[in-house]
Amino acid sequence: MGKLRTVAAVLLLLFMSQFVYAQESGVSIYDLAVSAKAVFRWNPGMETGELSKRGDVVRFKIGIPFILINYSKKIESVKVFRGKNGAVYISQNGADAVLDLFRERTPAPGSMVVKAIIIDPGHGGKDPGAIGRHVVNGEKIVLKEKNLVLDVARDVFMQLKAKYPDKEIIMTRNSDKYITLEGRTEIANRVKLKDNEAMIFVSIHANASLNSRSKGFEIWYLPTDYRRELIDTDSLDKDLHDVAPILNSMLEEEFTVESILLAKQIQSGLEKTVGDVIPDRGLKEESWFVVRNAKMPAVLIELGFVTNREEALIMRKD
Questions:
Q1: Same domain, 289 and 175
Q2: What pLDDT is attached to residue 39?
Q3: Burial class (CB in 10 A: 0-12, 13-18, 19+), 314
Q4: Which helix (H) or strand (E) holds 266?
Q5: Do 150 and 264 fall into the same domain?
Q6: Tell me, what's the pLDDT at 244?
Q7: Does residue 208 share a domain with residue 186?
Q8: Is the pLDDT assigned to residue 23 strictly greater than 50?
Q9: Among the listed residues 28, 296, 285, the one whose alpha carbon sits nearest the alpha carbon of residue 185
Q10: What is the domain-level CATH number for residue 147?
Q11: At 88, which CATH number?
Q12: pLDDT range class, residue 254, cuts 50, 70, 90
């Protein structure tokens, strides 16, 4: 009898282990990305991830029973979980939905592209911004931030228009005009985009310090832990209202990552072009008004210090 009980227990354990395995079976997200030839991104802290291809994006989170396609369509009853080996898996129905999405869409020129670039020259009009006053060979030189950044912004605008004639390049101001901080972000936020189009916001400034020896350029982006409302619940279908906070969190994460990548690219570009005369002070985090209120990837650039005599003279040159 004892042996029979032992055999019965072993059979029961085997049955239960097979049942658990069946319950937890699925497709590795990594393998799914390889199969679909999609890009896989994963945030281990928030346990959220995405698969993207040709402008389509599938977002998911461990413990949430659905996946989100292009922030507008929800596929229910999909399980995303972590396997015993620590890898992330998705239930078969979710994998099938992902493959169908990426298979049914043919590559097109309209795949996810940056369609609009907002160039924001800081200050203007009654607001001069930082001011540097220096004497060079007996001549008094006054360098106002509002004028410097406008010149740079115009140059950036012309170069972008020449290189990307298909894109919409927008300046928040193109003259010595005062625009409120709210007005600047409103200009950016009211740009209409199609589903496969994106935009970025670049605010250009110059620095100042009580220490006249301070020098260097900086690129700022929004702190990763800063929370903001990016999704208008009223614009969502009713069946998405209950998950609006989750969608907002996912979009926050996406914009944060893209802002950091943009900041790094600009940092690299500045380092290559002016790094020999203006030092790199690095990437920094701050919740500047225009950065936190622009509902898109956004950065703020400090070109250099107008209060540093050497840098002021450099920044006066084209």
A1: yes
A2: 87
A3: middle
A4: helix 244-274
A5: yes
A6: 67
A7: yes
A8: no
A9: 296
A10: 3.40.630.40
A11: 3.30.457.10
A12: confident
